[in-house]
Amino acid sequence: MRLGMSGCFLPDDMDAVTPEMCGRVRQLGFSGIFTRFRRNNPNDTPKAKADRLRQVLADNGVRLYQATGFWQNLVTPDETLRREGVKTVQAALRLAGWMGARGIDTGPGSMNTAGPWFPHPDNWTTVSRAQLVKSLKECAHAAEDSGVYLSLEGHQLVVLESAEVTRDILAEVNSPWVRSDYDSANWITRETVYNTGAAVNHHFDVLGKYIVSCHAKDIWIENRLALHLHDGCPGKGLMDFRTLFRRMEALDSSYPVIAEGNTTDELPQVSALFHTVADELGIKLLEN
Asked: How many domains does the chain fold into?
């Protein structure tokens, strides 16, 4: 298994990545990163910038496990907007290939204009599913050409509302380059929050062969009179990371597990937690 980190002190601009930053990643116990690089539009970022980043990472022993897919709306019935979204994802895949990334992480988008992960009744329709399948099929060739996984993240508030729906959509797309980035918290419900191990096992039983990476995030239920599940820093909630690590290792010992939901200040304790869990389970953590 490989351990990665995301967010925190990683910059929004690839030009700001330095050898010192890479050293900090390694000193914290991670072998790779998930970057968002919001300031580097995939439609106009020159290859030279990506080449420079790729070399800095390689020279300092840091893998780029994931880059962002820029969170496009791939489910909209507006064909003009959908095609624009597909074009951006295709460009993100090309840029990720230049950077040497293993995959991009993207969601399906949402019909809620307030954000790509927010709920809307049209998110859970057969129309949204069909539009997503169409979009992913149009992106699959770009993923293959770039040698980069299009790693699709699900959440119960968007069209990929469950492991079952995600499996069915990926099966219909039928590309080895369009796969699942499993987020440990996103499909946890009120019914499963106190038994996350069983939930994780179910998700892997349903979706297993499609999973190629994982966001390791915690979740807990808050003391409120309206239901609120809060996700965040690993170790603060109810997530069964032992089951998560065991199932990821069983899929493929080279797959990355990427810490998410924590701050920079919380990184040392997250790293300690993950190393402890891996050690207890006899999982070898790959360093390169």
From this structure: 1
Q: Residue 260 sits in a domain of what CATH number?
A: 3.20.20.150
Asked whether residue 287 is assigned to any structural domain, the reply reads no
Beta bridge partners of 183: 215
- Please name which of 105, 281, 81 lies closest in space to residue 182, comparing C-alpha atoms: 105
Task: Using CA atoms of 141, 129, 106, 98 in order, give the dihedral in degrees to the nearest 10.
Answer: 10
Mean pLDDT, residues 161-178 taken together: 98
Give CA–CA dist 269/261, Å, rounded. 13
Q: Would 286 be classed as within a structural domain? A: no
3 has pLDDT over 90: yes
Summarize the confidence of residues 100-104 as an average pLDDT. Answer: 98
